[in-house]
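Let's study my pick:
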Amino acid sequence: MVAPRLGARFVIAVTPADVGKRVTTRRTVPGGYRDAVGVLESWHDGVLIVRKRDGSLVEIAEDTLAAAKVVPPAPPAR
């Protein structure tokens, strides 16, 4: 039997050197969190730009990041 986890530890493991890689991010917003997964297009003046699979861009203020990490490339479309 697996013991229940009573908490989560968020880690920010993304840097400006990761531009061009696929990342997952979690940022704080009023009332909770928002997630974005995609390619880190840029990180300039404290703002990250992530391009999601649908092509849309998400701007994320660096000071709102709760967690982020590099993830493997997306699987190919069927």
Q: What stands out?
A: The radius of gyration is 14 Å. The first strand starts at residue 22 and ends at 29. The mean pLDDT is 91. The CA atoms of residues 9 and 74 lie 25 Å apart.
